[in-house]
Structure formats: structure tokens, C-alpha cells
Amino acid sequence: MPAADASGAGAIAAGGSIAQALTGPGAIALHIENVGMLLPDACPPAESVSCPPRLTNLPFRAELFVGRSDELGLLRAAPATPGRPLAQVLRGLGGIGKSTLAARWSVECGPTHAPVWWIPAGSRSAIDAGVAALAAALQPSLVPLLPPEQMTEWGSRWLASHSGWLLVLDDVTNPADVEPLLSRAPSGRFLITSRRATGWHGVAEEIPLDVLSCDDAVRIFTRVRGGEDSDAAELCEELGCLPLAVTQAAAYCLETDCTVRVYLDDLAAYPDEMYAETYEGGDHERTVARVWHVTLDRLTNDPLAVRLLLTMAWYAPDGIPRGLFAHLGTPLAVRRALGRLAAHSMITLSGDTVTVHRLVQAVSRTRADADRHRNPEAIGDACAAAVKALARAVPEDVDDPSAWPAMRSLLPHVQALAEHVRPEEDTAAMAYVLTRTGDYMLTAGIRLAGGAYGLLQRAEAACVRHHGPGGEQTLYTRVLLARATRMLKSSEEAAPVAEEVLADCTRVLGPDHEVTLGALSNMHQVASLQGDTERALRLAEACLAGVARLRGAEARSTFEARKKLVMALTAVGEMTRADDLCDELLADCSRALGEEDPSTLSVRSLRTALAGQRELPETLIKLMAGVHSVGEEDEEGLIAALRVLIQQVGAVEPEQFTRATEEDVSAAERDLDTCRRVLGDDHADTVVARLVLLQVYAATRDPRYAEPAKDLLMEVLSVISANESALAFMLRVFGALHTVIDELPRPPDE
Q1: Residue 686 pLDDT > 90, yes or no?
Q2: Distance CA 601, CA 581 (A)
Q3: Is residue 69 a contact partner of residue 24, using CB atoms and an 8 Å limit?
Q4: Of 223, 183, 221, 220, the residue nearest 204 (C-alpha)
Q5: Closest Cα to residue 364, out of 419, 300, 310?
Q6: Is 386:315 a contact under the CB 8 Å cutoff?
């Protein structure tokens, strides 16, 4: 190769053939066998090029934009920092409206920023291509002269040497992809959109996006669909108020001229097709199913993350305990998988719980043969895992108060699982979960009890399939169902159910089995409701003897059986014996269980109620027991018994009634406050504590307590209204009282 020398500014020496050489102003391009002269303006320095006014390449203008006032406020108020660009990132779930907000903000910035440039930024190479495209728009003469990497470099130098521009980096996958560009720009503004929820510290100010409010979602739907539809709010709620899903549903309804109700029906019947559906001309890559498929593709190197997402799809969307997934992998692996899902905005982690968007769940439990993440086998395995996780988590003894916090956290997830799984597909594990949950709901509160009946009916059917009609688990579930029938239905319906299950348990399991004793206890309470107080007393005594033999004198179940015996004695008018047994029981409960144990609180309320009757004449006590013994269907008998009772009450001298003191009021109020704190407002024993306080208020004969008593009665009715059987009983008593009171002579007008 011959030697070559060059001197002087911009000089080039070539000892052989070269393709191209650029030296800036006055540049010469040397090609093999020819020499071309370029004008100085063909390749000017990036620093010397000005931006044409209103230069932009926005892909759309977000005409359907609604809401987001808080996020727009953050964008407008963001302060600039000298020496570094202003960078913000809109992050959130795919389809949540990040790009729409970015487009809306970009239009607003048009008069004050130049250029406003949009770059699809799914990878570092895509970002480089977007910067090269900006260079071409700023200086078109560069296109035939520079290869892509030099166009990117020229564009980066332009950004570094100018201010007043806005660059939108849309759908960034990895925060590290944008750092090289941000590091070279001392001024200007970046707006980033990304599904990545982590990795932005020190890179960009985060603006997390949530779903729209229901009102804003309906506004979008109505704008696209046109006209009002009374079912639009229901559809938006079903779609989780996700902007992408709402917009596509509205466009589909408009194009196919179908009502929202038809769309909802199709969504329920054909979820796989509807989640992948769009309107004619719509982007099939932007359906909700496809958007999240892309995210799951990015997690393929972590199969546990995908499995976790498919598993939690069967639960309620909020407050999913992380402990449910402990059996799916090592603690480190589960933690890492949850972290990756959170990093891609598929879930939100909050302490010990997980939150998932309800539409992500709906798609994740919908079978799709063409989707390798959601094929029928994967969906079936995830459902089975969800059931088994709950079966492991449900405490064995749901009557133990220490188990109630765990059951409260699991309850919404059991209910959601029951909605998503068809009853005919219930496994033995599912039957176990439903049975234990139904047991808890019967105990936890009057409002919850109503929901237990359906779960227990379903559990019974599954138990018969898996364990046979005489299986212990089946009989246990039937006992609970008989209990629910007694609590929620009439005694006419409850009695034959209770009799049958008691007979079956005695025949199959024997009289001393704990399941049989549960059936016996329920039969005792049915007999009491029927007015057969003598039989109820015999059953209560037999139940106590059996439980004490099986569990011992200090067991909680033994204390509960003793309380029921006290109540049975009260019903037959044996007040002295009932009073003595109640005092002994309260002392034993306080010693063995503690002052604030639910059993202790229940017995204390019972003792307070009995105390108000201690000094009553024996005649009145017997009459009150007679009122209690009137059968549920005997309206005339109830009216007659109340008529006699009121006549006798009127004949008793006032001084024979015990007057409650201020100390009695304070004690009853303390008991109610404790019940509210320990048991909750809806628990049956809290309702009893309210009724006891009402009794004490009345016994003071002090008009100051009239208003508090009225408020207390309204609370009782509000809670009891959730239980049709209990409400019917109270209304029956009130109706009978109204009839009797109307018969009383009126005082003469003065």
C-alpha cells in the first residue's frame, strides 16, 4: 500500500480505496474510482441545526381522553432540574391508558415544545431507530449519506445540544434501555410509558396509573358507542374499568349493533373469543388477551411466575394472602416470581397480600387452545392448585376464635372460587373448603350466615359424590346444613331435616360421636323453636353429658353445651337452677378461657339477662316461659299467651320489679363494647348484648335512656334484617304485641 500524507484543516490522505470520508464543513466524499464534492450544508453539525416549528410525529391524538386530572397535574407541575433532562414515566398494567395519556399530554405540549417526537421504545434498537428517524426529520439530507448508527449518533448530539423538545418513549420494556440516551441529554424532556413497575429510581419520576373510575369508563363507552345504555356501568365494572377493554367493547357494540346486555351474555358464554375480539380495522395485537400474552412471553424463563398468575386468577382480586402460594416453590422462588409479576405490573404487592386486576384474572382463567400460557391443561392445573392452597390454609377448627382472623381473610377468596368453579366439578378438597367456610359463616355473624346455606348445599352434593351418603365428612356437612336450615328457615322446614340427620348420625356413627352430638345440639334448638321446651331440656342435658364425656369438662364445646342447658332451663321456668348454673359457668369460663373470650362474653350477657328476672314473681316467670313455648306457626296461641302475660304484668305492683342502677347500665354498656371489639357488630352474641342493654335501659325506668334505647333497637333490626328467619320471628312477636296492646283499654281523654 503506498504511503499517503495530508496536512491542513479537513485534509484526508488515503493510501488505498475507501468508501466514504466526511470532514464536516467543506466535506469531500471519496468513492472507489470517483470523487464527489458535497456542499457544506449537506451534513451540518447537529449543534447548528434548528428544529422546524411544530415538528411532530404523534401516532394519534387521544380524542377519547377522559379523566386523569391528577396525573395531568403531576405532568404540568414537574419542575426542571438544571443540567439534567426532565424525565417522567407513566407506568401501569397493559391497556390501562398510558399511551393515551402520553398522547394527550404531547398535544398539550405542542405549542411550547419542538419537536414533540414519539418513539416506540420496546428495545434499545427500537430507541436507536427512533432517534435516527428524528435526525432524518431534522436534516433530511443526512439520509443518503449516513448509515443508521451514525444517524442515531447525530440525533443524540442534536438532543444533547438543544432544549425545548419532548421525546415520548412508548412501551419501554427495560429501564436500562433508556439510560444511555438520558445520560447524554442535559436538557429537554422525556415522557416514558412502561409496564415495568420497578427499576425507575434515579432514572425517571414515577407516575403510576390505575384504572378509570366507573363514571369515566362509562363516559368513554358512551362516546364510542353513542347513546345511553342502562347496562353500561355493569359492563364497565365487569371489564374492571380498563380503558382498552371498555373502548374495544364499545366499538364492537357499535359495529355489530348489539346491546350491552348481549355483549355481557356473549362475554359470559364465549370469554376466550370475546377477550381476543376487536372491531373491523382494529389492531388485533391490542386486544386485552394479546396485550397480556406479550407480557407473559417475557416471563417464560420463570414458569412459576406464570403459574402463580393463573392460580391467583381464581380468587377475589384484592387481599390475596401470599401464604397461599408457599407450597408452590421455595420461599425464595415464590418471592422472586411474585416480584417479577409485580415488576411487569401484572400484580400489586402490599405487605403480605397480593392484588390483581379483575380482568387480568378473568383472562387468566379462560382456556385458549392457541395460547400456550392458557391452554386447558395449564388452566385446570391452576384451578386445582388454587383449591388445594385454600384447603391447606383453612383452619381445622373454625369455631376456635383464634382461627377467625385467618377465616376472615380467606372468606372472599373461597366465595370467588365457588363462583368460578362449576358445582359439578367440585373435588373432595373443594367440598372440604366449602364445608369449613360454611361452618365459619354460621358462627361469625348474622349477615354472613345467609351465605352459608348455598355453600353447604353445594358441599353436601360434592361430599356424597366423593365420600358416599354415609361418609363421616358427608354427615358432618349435613349437620351444618341442618343448622343453617334452622337458623335461616322456618321451624317447620328445619324440624324434619334435623330429625333425619340426627337419626342417620346415630345409626352410622353412634350416639357418642362428635358429629352425632352436633346433630343432637341442633335438634335441641329446633325443639326449642317449636315450643317443645320439655324435649329441648332433655336434649340439652343429653348433649352436655355426651360432650363432657368426649371433650372433658374444660373444653370450649362443653362450656357451650352448659350455656344451652341454662337457656333450656330458663325456657321451662326453672329460674333458680338456671341462675345458679349460669353463675358457675361464668366463673369457669372466665378462669379457663379469659374474660374477653367469646364464650365468656356470651355467658356474661346471659347472666345479665337472667339477673333482670331474678326478682320477678314466679307467676310471671312461668308465663314468660309459656310465651316461649308457643310453636312458630301458632299465631293465636302466641297472642293468647301474650294477652295473659300483659294482664299479669299490669297486676304486679311496680316495686316488685327490680330497678336497674347506673352501675348495671355501665356494666351492660361495657359488655356490649367488648362484644363489638372482640366479635364484631354482626355477631349473634353482639346482638344479644344489645338486647340485654335494652332490657337494662328499660329496667331503669329513666326517660333519659329512651333515645339510646331507640337507637339500639334500630341497630338490632338492621343486623337481624340480613337473616330472614330471625327477622320473621321478631316481626311475628311485634305483630302479636301490637294486637294485644290494641285490646288494652285506653285512658279517658282529659
Answers
A1: no
A2: 16
A3: no
A4: 183
A5: 310
A6: yes
All three cell numbers of 185, joined, read: 441529554
Residues 587, 566: Cα–Cα separation, whole Å: 14
Which triple of cell numbers denotes residue 391? 384447603
- Euclidean distance between CA atoms 29 and 35, whole angstroms: 6
> Do residues 287 and 276 lie in contact, with contact meaning Cβ atoms separated by under 8 Å?
yes
Contacting residues for 313 by C-beta, under 8 A, at least 6 apart: 356, 360, 361, 362, 364, 365, 382, 386
DSSP state for residue 366 in the 8-state scheme: S
The three three-digit cell numbers of residue 421, written as one number: 368453579
Q: Cell numbers at residue 219, please? A: 363516559
Mean pLDDT of the chain: 84
**Alpha helices for 469-574 (secondary structure H):** 472-488, 491-509, 514-529, 533-551, 556-571
- What are the angstrom distances between the C-alpha of 310 and each of 151, 347, 382? 44, 12, 6
pLDDT (0 to 100) of residue 298: 81
What angle in degrees, to the nearest 10, is found between the helix axes of 533-551 and 556-571?
160
Q: How far apart are CA 681 and CA 675, in angstroms?
A: 8
pLDDT value at residue 32: 43
Residue 24: count of CB within 10 angstroms of its CB:
11
Strands in 116-120's sheet, in edge-to-edge order, are: 116-120, 166-172, 189-194, 86-91, 205-208
At 490, the pLDDT band (50, 70, 90 cuts) reads confident
Identify whether the C-beta of residue 699 lies closer than 8 Å to the C-beta of residue 657: yes
36 band by pLDDT with thresholds 50, 70 and 90: very low
- Region 75-100 average pLDDT: 87
Q: How far is CA 672 from the centre of its chain?
A: 30
Tell whether omega for the bond before 303 is within 30 degrees of 0, i.e. cis: no
| CA 373 to each of CA 220, 276, 291, 344: distance values in angstroms, whole numbers, following the listed order | 31, 14, 13, 16
Three-state DSSP class for residue 410: helix
Q: How far apart are CA 15 and CA 674, in angstroms?
A: 97
Spatial separation of the C-alpha atoms in residues 482 and 456, rounded to whole Å: 10
Contact, 644 vs 623, CB < 8 A? yes
Residues found in the chain: 750
The whole-angstrom separation of Cα 627 and Cα 641 is 5
Q: Identify the CA nearest to 294 among candidates 350, 231, 346.
A: 346
CA dist., res. 56 & res. 216, Å (int): 29
Phi-psi region of 701 (alpha: psi -120 to 50; beta: other; left: phi over 0): left
pLDDT at 738: 53
Q: Indicate the pTM of the whole model.
A: 0.77
Dig out the grid coordinates for 341 from the structure.
409479576
Largest Cα separation within the chain, whole Å, is 138
Q: Which residues share a beta bridge with 191?
A: 88, 168
Q: What's the DSSP call for residue 658?
A: P
Q: How far apart are CA 316 and CA 324, in angstroms?
A: 13
